[in-house]
């Protein structure tokens, strides 16, 4: 049987790309935003509702799932799709970023990384081969190579060391992935090199020579300004194959997504829609709105009466404000859902605009809407 994973580039408008990714669990329309289901759940949102917001694909995380409940346990229970009741595609992050951000005690060698679990303090080893094995046990449609993610800004020798180590791990990840021979699954390589254009170019060329189903740009949104991030994206995407999907990891705000699509990115993930929603912040065509602000307490209007998502049209701002101020869990749930729907609405708008050859018009109009801001109450 033919490999079910494939990428079809349908149209371009400038550097912006419209495409489709075929996976064993269904099609992913690109540009695509992946809600983050780190621990086999998108926080506070049922899988059925995540699907209803327009999401085609979710992200799960190797680091968290290997620690709890364990990859072998999930495999014994039928795999991650069955475990979390999600029938669509799943991409799993290899865990490199979490090792950097969550583990205070870690040791990195050529062999892999040894770190102390943030749950119980136990020492855990993660190699490129083990990262691939865990993702296979989870049943991921798209797996990521293990890489070393470092914070920015950083010294060039440290950036180069981490980039070269990530390339060595990329080769080992591919060998391990091919050895498991899971039909239909895909493995992405990760371009590293910090904010150094020459190192990013070296990384991209080497990964293309190794050969992956898709390519991610990693090591961004780790402390650098937005203009630096976008410059790296602009420099890297031309070096990646046009017939493979491009994934910007861990990004970001609606503006980040809009600008990265303009520079040739196809896939994104970020915790921001649900994290901000839990704290009373909503993303919308008016920009970001803080519903914990007292100005909303007597506002009977819905959040956005033109939204394609019924929840954004149904509940009053006053009620959402009340839920957030009262620390009711329903407030966090509803705002998370509204944010996820807005992100998907933004992606759908970009896909339509690329298809119609009017991406720049859409980009300008969207940015102008954010700049005008929310409509004040009467």
Give a written overview of the molecule.
This protein has 2 domains: 264 residues, Alpha-Beta Barrel (TIM Barrel); 96 residues, no CATH class. It is built from 15 helices and 16 strands. The strands form 4 sheets. Strands 4-14-13-12-11-10-6-5 form an 8-stranded parallel sheet. A 3-stranded antiparallel sheet has the order 1-2-3. β8 and β9 form a beta hairpin. The model has no long low-confidence stretch (mean pLDDT 95).
What tags apply to this protein structure?
alpha/beta, 15 helices, 2 domains, 378 residues, eight-stranded parallel beta sheet, TIM Barrel, single chain, three-stranded antiparallel beta sheet, globular, 19% strand
Please outline the helices and strands:
Blueprint: E1 6-13, E2 16-23, E3 26-30, E4 32-35, H1 47-52, E5 58-61, H2 62-67, H3 71-76, H4 80-84, E6 90-93, H5 96-102, E7 106-108, E8 113-116, E9 123-126, H6 128-138, E10 142-144, H7 156-180, E11 186-191, H8 197-210, E12 214-217, H9 226-236, E13 246-248, H10 254-261, E14 267-270, H11 272-278, E15 281-284, E16 287-290, H12 310-314, H13 317-325, H14 329-356, H15 359-372
Parallel strand pairs: 4-14, 5-6, 6-10, 10-11, 11-12, 12-13, 13-14
Antiparallel strand pairs: 1-2, 2-3, 7-8, 8-9, 15-16
